[in-house]
Structures are given as structure tokens and as C-alpha cells.
Design brief:
This protein has 214 residues and is an all-alpha fold. Helix 4 packs across helix 5, helix 4 packs antiparallel against helix 9 and helix 9 crosses helix 10.
Length: 214
């Protein structure tokens, strides 16, 4: 995130920001696809804010290409590692990591939706908080070949990059200073990510109350 801080304060020239920023964004999004603890959505939104305030042509287009390419390659690498684990008698640590991030109820839902809608589910899974890994595991369990997964994953990564870039553009357009837009974009992406879990916590007591009344 250091390149974003430097860019937002105007300490470094735009050419230096771009030389450091795009490779950094690529590496972080790629790692975030492999290890789903890096807030890649917030990274893309923040990068879009910085690009929005730059005078360099095609800055926003470069953010989009960098983010979507890194996400696609990271997903494909993780899927390939998962397939290797499925074929191994003892599995693999990568497959175990995928399974640990796919709760049973989410996996069941993902399998049902995948059976009914196929490739379209992949596109939606990347736009839903915590939806990518359960759908990926469902694809692995359905023994989808790499080529079929890639056909669904490419538009999924493009749609994901567009969505979070639009959040960044919105934040950048609302504030005069880039750092203010970065803060707004990060706050919005965090809120979007947290919304499903908050909604579940709200609904849980209501369901319990209905069960007791019934």
C-alpha cells in the first residue's frame, strides 16, 4: 500500500508512481487470489482513485488490465493447485486451504447453483463477498477441466475488476484530495465485504424466535 500513500500525497512524480504502482498492484492481487486474506478489492479501488487523479492517459485502463490479469492468473494457479490436490491420495495443503475457507452450507449452495447454472455462477461468485472459494471448490469436486474453468473465470475477473474500479472512481470523484478518495473507497469495500456476515447475525435471532414460536 506504500505506493498508494506516496501517490495520494503527491510526493513522487506520476512516472515513478506508475513504475512502482502497477507491478505492486499486480503482485498483491495475484497473491490475494492465492491467499484470500489480502483485501484485493480495496487495493483495486484505491488504485483507481489514484489513477482517477492522474493526468497520464490510460491510467484507469492500466489499473483495469493489471487487476483483472492478476486476478485471473491467481485464480487459475489456485485452481491448478487444487486439481493436483484432488488427484493426490493425500491431497495437498492448497486443497486443504480451499476446503477450510468453504463452509459446508456455502459449498452445498455452490454445488446446487453450479449444477443449475454452470459457468454463469463463476461470474457471480467473484462479485459476492466470500463467494469465490466455495464455487471454486464446487468446480474442483465436479472435476471441471482447466479450460472450462478458465472460460467462466475470465469474465468473472473482468467483472470483478470493473466493479471495484467503479467504486474507486466514485470515491475519487467525490473528493478533491486523492487520499480522501482512497479512504472512502476502502471504507466502502470493507462495508460491502462485511455486509453478508452482519445480515446473517441479524437474521439468526429472528429465525430462532420463529422456531420457538412454531
Amino acid at each position: 500500500m506504500s505506493w498508494l500513500a506516496a501517490a495520494s500525497t503527491g510526493v513522487t512524480p506520476e512516472s515513478t508512481q506508475q513504475a512502482i504502482g502497477y507491478p505492486t498492484l499486480f503482485v498483491l492481487v495475484l497473491l490475494g487470489a492465492l491467499v484470500p486474506v489480502i483485501p484485493t478489492g480495496a487495493l483495486v479501488s484505491s488504485a483507481a482513485v489514484v489513477a482517477f487523479h492522474q493526468t497520464a492517459p490510460f491510467a484507469l485502463a492500466l489499473v483495469f488490465v493489471t487487476a483483472s490479469a492478476a486476478a485471473f492468473l491467481g485464480d487459475m494457479a489456485l485452481y491448478w493447485l487444487g486439481r493436483r490436490g484432488m488427484k493426490s491420495k493425500n491431497g495437498s495443503r492448497w486443497l486443504e486451504a480451499i476446503r477450510s475457507r468453504a463452509p459446508e452450507d456455502r459449498l452445498t449452495q455452490a454445488q446446487e447453483k453450479l449444477a443449475g447454472h454452470g459457468v454463469a455462477v463463476l461470474v457471480l461468485s467473484r462479485l459476492m463477498p466470500a463467494g469465490r472459494i466455495p464455487v471454486m471448490l464446487a468446480c474442483l469436486m465436479a472435476k471441471w477441466p482447466m479450460r472450462r474453468f478458465a472460460r467462466g473465470n475470465l469474465p468473472a475477473c473482468l467483472a470483478w475488476a470493473v466493479t471495484y474500479q467503479l467504486i474507486g472512481i466514485l470515491g475519487g470523484s467525490l473528493f478533491a484530495e486523492p487520499w480522501e478518495g482512497v479512504v472512502a473507497a476502502v471504507a466502502l469495500t470493507v462495508a460491502i465485504s462485511a455486509a453478508p456476515s452482519v445480515w446473517k447475525r441479524i437474521r439468526r435471532p429472528a429465525k430462532a424466535e420463529k422456531s420457538r414460536k412454531a
